[in-house]
Amino acid sequence: MKTKTYDIDYELFTVAEIVKIVKFFRLIEDTKTKKIKKDVLIKKYNEYRNIINSIALEKKYDRMLYEKCGVSIYRTVKNLH
Question: What is the DSSP string of the chain?
């Protein structure tokens, strides 16, 4: 199994925060192939936003994830509502 690498600004976050960010990215990727509970996704998205705390970084990571995996964080969360 090939390990995915993400373009994260590692110097901005603690190890624990990076782990949460990567887990969130994987959860978003999983929405392509699995049914993820809405409340779980919202909870993890809110955690992610609290860690990132930057609109510019959110947009950057959304583009990166879309380019790597074909799934958008923004669109995925927007479709929950």
Answer: -PPP-----GGGS-HHHHHHHHHHHHHHHHTTTS---HHHHHHHHHHHHHHH--HHHHHHHHHHHHHHHS--HHHHHHTT-
**4 in any annotated domain:** no
Asked whether residue 25 is domain-assigned, the answer is yes
* Residue ranges making up the domain that contains 43: 13-78
In this predicted model, what pLDDT tens digit does every residue of 43-72 receive, in sequence order? 999 999 999 999 999 999 999 999 999 999
How far apart CA 8 and CA 24 sit, in angstroms, is 13
Q: Is the pLDDT of residue 38 over 60?
A: yes
pLDDT reading at 1 higher than 80: no
